[in-house]
Design brief:
- With about 230 residues, the protein is of the alpha/beta class.
- The chain has a single domain, classed as Alpha-Beta Barrel (TIM Barrel).
- The protein is built from eleven helices and eight strands.
- Helix 8 links the parallel strand 6 and strand 7.
- It is globular.
- The model has no long low-confidence stretch (mean pLDDT about 95).
- Bound molecules: cytidine-5'-monophosphate.
């Protein structure tokens, strides 16, 4: 059965490579299955805004995952440049504090208005999924920053979802560290299967190596998509 558009909107492929042609090949291989392309630190550092432009041309929404964390003015300006590119999602570290997250939102609004784009959703990274533990008090503190500043969502591990869903039900929950039962966890410490993450409240799953290291990326994406189609 063909994946639904609603399921594709829940899937982001992490295009972690220094090679734009490779990223475009991966994006093409998951066409119609995955709706969002995540451009992270490696691809953006290697290829810059051209990566966003070329991937946008494929029709995928762009998730610019540069995890900004700096003084408020610098983050505001970086976010303004990000939204000028026409991306749909931008990340900052929530540990940067309320003033920094508010500045990020200001920057996103400015850049989008200047270029006539939709304002990207601002996501706050809570605690990296490579970290072994996230205490509820650290999580609560980071989420409070996002709520007070007015961010749209957060990035968290699937294992943190029960707490986050009760503490911040309105925020969009974006979850990396997704692995099928037989996948290598790589450097991810807190993993979950796609169906468990969605059942626990994830709105968007970020998937890199289970697709991009597969000998058949389209087949891997299809398996993940069908696992969540009815979750
Ligand atoms: O290959 P894998 O599926 O582990 O890729 C996960 C992606 O999600 C990477 O691009 C990584 O930078 C990103 N990410 C993460 N944990 C976070 C935030 C983003 O793994 N908390």
């Amino acid at each position: 059965m063909a994946p639904s558009a609603a399921t594709a909107k829940k899937l982001a492929i992490a295009l972690d490579t220094d090679d734009l042609d490779q990223a475009l090949d991966w994006a093409a291989s998951v066409a119609g299955i995955v709706g969002i392309a995540k451009v992270g630190l490696q691809l953006f550092t290697a290829c810059g805004p051209l990566a966003v432009e070329k991937l946008s041309d494929t029709g995928l929404e762009i998730f610019l995952d540069l995890k900004f964390h700096d003084i408020p003015t610098t983050v505001e300006k970086a976010c303004r440049e990000s939204s000028r590119l026409g991306v749909s999602y931008v990340t900052v570290h929530s540990s940067g504090g309320v003033a920094m997250v508010k500045a990020a939102l200001n920057g996103l609004g400015q850049g989008a208005t200047e270029r006539g784009h939709h304002v990207p959703q601002l996501l706050g990274v809570t605690i990296l999924t490579s970290a072994e533990q996230a205490s509820e008090s650290d999580l609560a503190q980071r989420i409070s920053i996002l709520l007070e500043a007015g961010a749209n969502g957060l990035v968290c591990a699937a294992t943190d979802l029960p707490f986050i869903c009760s503490f911040a039900p309105t925020l969009t929950k974006v979850v990396p560290g997704i692995r099928r039962r037989f996948d290598d966890p790589d450097d991810q410490a807190r993993t979950a299967t796609p169906e468990i993450a969605v059942a626990a409240g994830a709105d968007i799953l970020v998937i890199g190596r289970p697709i991009t290291s597969s000998s058949n990326p389209r087949q891997a994406a299809l398996e993940i998509s069908s696992a969540i189609e009815f979750a």
